[in-house]
Amino acid sequence: MSTEPSFAECAECLCLASRRAARRITRAFDRELRPYGLRATQFTILVMLSLRGATSIGELAEALGAERTTLTRNLALLEKAGWVKIEPAEDDARSRIVTVTDQGRAAVAQASPAWRKAQDATAAAIGSDGAAALRRLARTAPQ
Question: Model pTM?
Fold first, then answer.
């Protein structure tokens, strides 16, 4: 009798499958957005800021489900492109407030049809039930 664990089920690991799917989805969005000088992560940040208005980096990281350090690196690139403005908060010099610029809003508006194309293709590939499950999981997954 073997005491070795069976790893056969691990080949169907949901964590691995979700990571592989996320990379494929991201590549599809990046491919569509590339002609506009945007990556999917940058597009998402600009859209979130357009919807929320001026937001602290910490609050933005929370809203995006992103690590603060990763977000800070992405924001530096967006600031260099002139798409966001980062300033100290009025009430706390340690906190930074991010605002999308008019140039950033224009970049999002111009790239929106490309985003829509990637969104529609991805939704078609995973189906409406898959899209609903993905959104539900993103909202309710254990931390």
Answer: 0.87
